[in-house]
Amino acid sequence: MDATVKKQASPSPLNAANASYLEALYEKFLKDPNTVPAHWRIWFKRLQAGVPEQAAPEFPARSPGPAVQPSAPSAVMTEGLTAEAAEKQIAVLQLINAYRFRGHQKANIDPLRIYDRPVVSDLDPVFHGLTEEDMGKVFSTGSLIGIDQAPLEEIFALIKKIYCHTIGAEYMHITETAEKRWIQSYLEGAQDDPGPSVELQRHILERLTAAEGLERYLHTNYVGQKRFSLEGGDSLIPLLDNLILYAGSKGVGEIVIGMAHRGRLNVLVNTLGKLPRDLFMEFEGQHETDNKRSGDVKYHLGFSADGDTPGGPVHITLAFNPSHLEIIDPVVEGSVRARQQRRKDWLGDEVIPVLIHGDSAFAGQGVVMETFNMSQSRGFFTGGTLHIVINNQIGFTTSNPLDTRSTVYCTDVAKMVQAPIFHVNGDDPEAVIFVTRLALDYRMTFKKDVVIDLVCYRRQGHNEADEPAVTQPLMYQKIRSHPTVRHLYAERLAAQNIIASEEADRMMNNYRQTLEQGTNVAPYAEEGARSSRVNWKPFLGTQWDQPVETEVPLPRLQELAAHIQQLPKGFELHSRVGHILADRRKMAAGALPIDWGFAETLAYATLLNEGFSVRLTGQDSGRGTFFHRHAVLYNQKDGQVYVPLEQVNPVQTDFSIIDSLLSEEAVLAFEYGYAATEPNTLVIWEAQFGDFVNGAQVVIDQFLASGEAKWSRLCGLVLFLPHGYEGQGPEHSSARLERFLQLCAEDNIQVCVPTTPGQMFHMLRRQMLRPYRKPLVVMTPKSLLRHRLSVSSLDEFCSGAFRLVIGEVDDIKPAMVNRVILCAGKVYYDLLQARREQKRQDVAILRLEQLYPFPQQQLERELERYRKAREIVWCQEEPQNQGAWDQLHRPLQGCLSRNQSLHYTGRASSAAPAVGYFNLHLEQQRAVVEEAFGSMKESQ
Length: 940
Prior knowledge:
Layout: H1 3-9, H2 19-31, H3 38-48, H4 75-78, H5 83-102, E1 138-140, E2 149-151, H6 152-163, E3 167-170, H7 177-189, H8 198-221, H9 236-249, E4 254-259, H10 264-270, H11 276-283, E5 303-309, E6 312-318, H12 328-343, E7 351-358, H13 359-364, H14 366-374, E8 386-391, E9 421-425, H15 429-446, E10 450-455, H16 473-481, H17 485-495, H18 503-517, E11 525-527, H19 554-565, H20 575-589, H21 596-609, E12 613-618, E13 633-634, E14 641-642, E15 655-659, H22 665-675, E16 681-686, H23 697-704, H24 707-711, E17 718-722, H25 737-742, E18 750-752, H26 757-769, E19 776-780, H27 795-798, E20 805-806, E21 819-823, H28 827-838, E22 843-848, E23 850-852, H29 856-864, E24 871-879, H30 885-893, E25 901-907, H31 918-933, H32 936-939
Parallel strand pairs: 4-6, 4-7, 7-8, 8-10, 9-10, 12-15, 12-16, 16-17, 17-19, 18-19, 21-22, 21-24, 24-25
Antiparallel strand pairs: 1-2, 3-9, 5-6, 5-11, 13-14, 18-23, 20-22
Helix pairs in contact: 2-5, 5-6, 8-9, 8-10, 8-17, 8-18, 9-15, 12-22, 19-20, 19-21, 21-26, 22-23, 28-31
């Protein structure tokens, strides 16, 4: 047999049996041409260029990837193909892949059809060289699920149905092949699904009736009142209803929901089971009030419900949310993480977060990106979030998407974590339910975020007092003539003979009657707290000054100190860290005074030993920004990580210390959510420098400072904010103490400025041992971490408590004192050293360690000793318009005797927190200290 005959007898690589292999190879080529063999790379490039009659390369002896054999290939397709036929076969595979990549751009996802869809050339068979003559020819479908081969017209109709009907799927940006194949199989395999049962279809209609019925009732009875109507996005209600039922079938025990205004009242009543009569009372201004609380508007309020599903009970929480829209996202994630930790649900199988967004907010607010960035990180993982965008295609009063974003879709930000995105037409509730199940299945399978873009419209204005047609006349002409979702779906069911034509009206009348009775209209949920698992009652009605014992017996303290100093065998420390730990062993023995890093570590160890968990997050918190903490140790030989505090009480407690991502807003909000959910964990967020907290001001204003007043929500979150003037410039000096003090009222937060390690120890223990959960803001030190005077003896940890005011430490006779300097923080040591150098006996120095709640009684007792002193001076490092002066001078004045006067000494008012030149800083600091003491003559 000659060579020519042999070549003809060998199997063609373009045989239909190898179509899947070719498709996979071509997909690799599209991603990166360099990942395929050179001969295939050349062939594919020539094919793309339209070079005719080219011969295909031979297959290698062993195929580098499995070839999926068609179940029953036709005789025509199993024969060797001509070059022209091969090109056509490849073109068909290209067409199928184009629909997977870009079919969403042609999908019917806009109920109003107001925006022109772009012309996507590669979705046209002609683009790939396929003609009308090819439509009747049979081709292999490659990996297309459902059919192995079919005429091109059938293939074309099928891929349009899958990818261009009322669901637009974006998933080909995902790099993990397994995830892409899973989604592909789910979408393409669903074509054999008979669709929802008659029972489910009737249930969907009933839920749409509830969504529309509530809005109609409110619109009629409370004309002009703000409610941020769901009308146009009605499919959200059956979506959530089915999500809860489906989640229950998968063993989910808790769902935590975060959402802003749009549709919130509808969700509260129709999904969570808030009683309609309670909502109506709120509209009428008759709801219960508490004069000690400010309360909040009805569309900010949260709710807790228990849902009964066929798969078991599901506890549902809707988080309280301020007007800052997406800021709730990381708060919910933190709450979910706390609930998962409590359940030992490490993979997120039992508690899931659901975030409901607005389209413009999702694209426009940076905290969304920050929250996505946290989603797979070690310290903030929650097993994936289900994101639902109520996309009414209009942001506030803006009608043109060009004004609200620079991306094609509002959901494009989700691609940063390769989340799949499913755009769905809100007027097709069955497609909405399908996508909901797909999204939840994906989340439960891959433990990653997933996005449902519910494309709908807004029938009313931004609020019901707004007239949207002023700025969107064409859109609202369409909306006013557009039937409601319920109406369209009722017609669809009537056409299928699933309901009688009059049954939809009967459903609406029945719902309205139930609504007027004020009873529960949510079929599976009602208000409750069955799954909360945390008893907050011990923390209610308690006072900040409630006495508590925070000292620790010496034997237990030394035992714990020894325990956390033990290292695994062969663990090699860095020499500098080894020296620090060696000093700590001496400190535990009483041979050296205790410094800040060790005092803090001992506080954590004792709390863990007593059954409390500890969670600390921040940028470089494991080591400590200032190289002082070293709670996380690194083996210098192999990089192995060891955390001694994890070994203190590992069965009953958790110790977590996380070097967080470079975010303040999202991370602080996450920690707030965690602390507001778990009162028995000491939760700490640490700023790298105190002024970095500026980036999280919305969390401080809307949650930390006012969460209790608005929503009666307690939270014991601790903020570590390094603060002190050491000449490091405007951005590394001040934690903006004045901003926190300005927010202080009604004992809402605690603001402390500890000046010794012992104070730090007792303050942290007090935070957990008292049955009192309020945020604690700590101005933590920088230079004091290694200041020779800022140390504590071992005895201070075994006795005493946190002192709100620290009196004179030197042997100063009260009768000789003519001037008393009051101060807080690092400046105390500058004053102390200056007085000792000057040998002044006529000036006493008192420290306020807690600035709010203001310790009036304690300060008055200290000042009583210096009744002879006529001048009381408040000395601070910060400029006069910053720091504590503006907020404290009135309560300070209230502590003085009649013959005493209060004066300010410190830097002059300034626009910047501090100067940027070190020499100028030193000059200013000397002037502050000198002014505080005044001359000997002035003090006499």
